[in-house]
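ugh ok fine here u go
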Amino acid sequence: MATFPAMSMQLSGLLAQIVPDYTRPVSSMSPKYFEVLEQNSHIIYPLVAILTLVLIAAGVLQAWKTQDLDGLQKNEFKKAIVNELRRNITGLPGDVLAKAVGLDRLKMNRLLEQMQQDGMVVSHTNSQRLTVWRMRGSGPEQSVRRY
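structure:
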């Protein structure tokens, strides 16, 4: 039994000679970078927030300007829509109107909804679940069906 402690001391001595002292690996992140951020956080983070808000506002304004039609174009398209709907008294779907007038389908639907609010056109959905637009007063008004 006396040999066991002596042997373990010899073994630990050999291990100490073989294994060098532990050194921490070099980190890929520089601690100086974090120190700069911590020391100047009262400047850096508000600047990042302001820059983000400016970019978001610029994107919203850019998208808003590109999607909206100016007044002259809108009136020209309204005139073309009215002429096309007068040719087809029974009405036309929005897709057909868009092709006939030469306007994007989404812009056409937005313009037709605006014209409906102004009272120029009316719409109804037929049995094929297709919204048909026609001039107000050009045909019989759609009656409300009660079952």
